Amino acid sequence: MNLDENQNRVAGIWFALLAYTAWGFLPLFWKTLQEVPAWEILAHRIVWSLVFVAVVLMINGGWRRFGKFLSHGKTVGVTLISGVLISLNWVTYIWAVNSDHVVEASLGYYMTPLFNVLLGVVVLKERLNFWQMVSFVMAGIGVAILTIHYGSLPWVALVLTFTFGLYGLVKKTVQVDSVMALALETLLVTPAALFYLGLLHSQGNGVFLGSMSLTLLLMAAGVATAAPLLFFSMAAKRIPLSMIGFFQYLAPSISLVLGVFWFHEPFTLAHLFSFGFIWVGLILYTFSHHRRLVRLQPGRFKQQEHV
Hints:
Elements: H1 3-24, H2 26-31, H3 38-60, H4 63-70, H5 73-98, H6 102-122, H7 130-150, H8 155-171, H9 178-202, H10 212-236, H11 241-247, H12 250-262, H13 269-296, H14 298-305
Helix pairs in contact: 1-10, 1-12, 3-5, 3-9, 3-10, 5-8, 5-9, 6-7, 6-8, 6-12, 6-13, 7-13
């Protein structure tokens, strides 16, 4: 590996760290909007994300490609579905944070990679190896422990898992980079968001412009949403997705720490056992997946190991 490639890889690692660290600390931002209903925050998040990404696309010339994507009916239809799924994921996460369910929300994002395995088997007809099957069973035991402990399913975690997993599956059918995808998704759901905000304000219930601090925070939701995606997009161009996969557990880990030690949410013995099973499942899945990649690309990985 030459010096330029090495510098490019180091930059990619830093961008990945920035992206997942920003996602991990997002609960601190949503807590500043705790007095605003989750659906109202979601509507502003959609609108201001579109505004922010539009500025980015104007700067980097992405608008030329934007029109091309909009001219394809399949792309628009698939993107609308992904926009609805990510909106449901966002509003669930915002509600969870502001209703003191940060720990359960982090559980949802820990489970997402394993739910993706299930989707791969059911929808894409992929086959699991032994350790991947074990990892999925371990995650199921973890969910069962919390369900038995509380007498009900951990619905916040499950909704976050299902919506984000399905969102990723839908996005596989259209090859669009992260920033362009966010622009398309927010554009298609913005009419509904604007209608909802208009209805709120017509009834005198909207908080926008009522308080300068809340107004600025709602506008900043666009930056809080799009900036990590920009970092992720820059990371994905510089390092393999298999390497990025190791960073994906950083965000829920930061959120879990915030939930327990900053927001003082309960973390009982049942939580410990539940998370423990899921963590073990993730470790088994991650390393079994990594070993498969090494077997598929032996020359490439050997070269990297000697750098």
